[in-house]
Amino acid sequence: MARTSTSAAALRASPAPAPARVPIADTSNLYLFSIDYEDVRGELVGGWRNADRLPDTTARLLRFLHAHDVTATFFVSGETARAHPDLIRKIISAGHEIGCHGWRHVPMERYQPAQFKDDIAKSLECLYRAGARRVAGFRAPYLSFTERCAWAYDVLAELKFVYSSSVLPGRNPLYGWSGFGDAVKSVSGVVELPVSVISFSGVSLPFASGACFRTLPWVLLRAIFARRRNDGRPLIGYFHPQDIDTEQAKIRYAEYGHVGNFVLRCNRRHVLERIGAIFNGGWRAMPYSDFVERHLCADDR
Question: Residue 11: what pLDDT?
């Protein structure tokens, strides 16, 4: 009964209406920058006994974004919003968009539609309770939307989401949807913004995101950004609080081997410096909802 009540409460929530839309004149050099915001301690050796690093990493991220005049989208898990409503309020007060990142960091393959709907509704309730006025977007943990769980778009549409950014359009060791394509498109009335990828030896890498900012040579990463500068499409990327956390980098991830731990923990000290160089080089940021509603939806609503 409690689950049903939570879901019903979230479905009855009345988010703020969309702001007035002014079409975007130029989408070149546009970087849709986001933070997938969850507490990663449950995935580490030692679990929840490890120190809570979110207050520190959140403060550093907010200072960095303010210094570079960047307004970002934070996709927040419901579990994290429940545990840290004070941090969510700080993110909102700084002017950033709040999106939904599910209840817990669980891939879509573990869900059935009814359970997914209940978890998202429960997450929305926590996000609104923490101070969010409007939650228009969703990102699946691990970018785990694939052809097998395309049913999720119907659930998102029922819950009044405007957009999702949950697809890695290619082949990847974790999750990928190679048949989706890299273009923004509407699925069941929900706009999907697949993350930007580049292919190396048949593997699609989300180059505008945290792992690649830490593992790819900086000269190569700059060249990729330069090549994409004027192609008329925004870059879509994501980072995590732990991407900048050198203290937490000392702790291994429990479910990954040596290679996985190297990818997840290496070079965290360089991430903010590299992101700053991208923005200093002329790339502009914008919350995802602004892009969707001003650029993609302004002509047909």
Answer: 42
Query: Which of the listed CATH numbers 3.20.20.370, 3.40.50.360, 3.40.640.10, 3.40.50.2300 matches domain 26-40+47-296?
Result: 3.20.20.370
Task: Provide the residue ranges of all domains of the chain, joining segments of one domain with +.
Answer: 26-40+47-296
Predicted confidence at residue 201, as pLDDT, reads: 84
Predicted pLDDT at 260 = 86
**Ranges under pLDDT 70 in the chain:** 1-25, 297-301
For the stretch 11-30, what's the b/e string if a residue is b when 16 or more beta carbons lie within 10 angstroms of its beta carbon? Answer: eeeeeeebeeeeeeeeeeeb
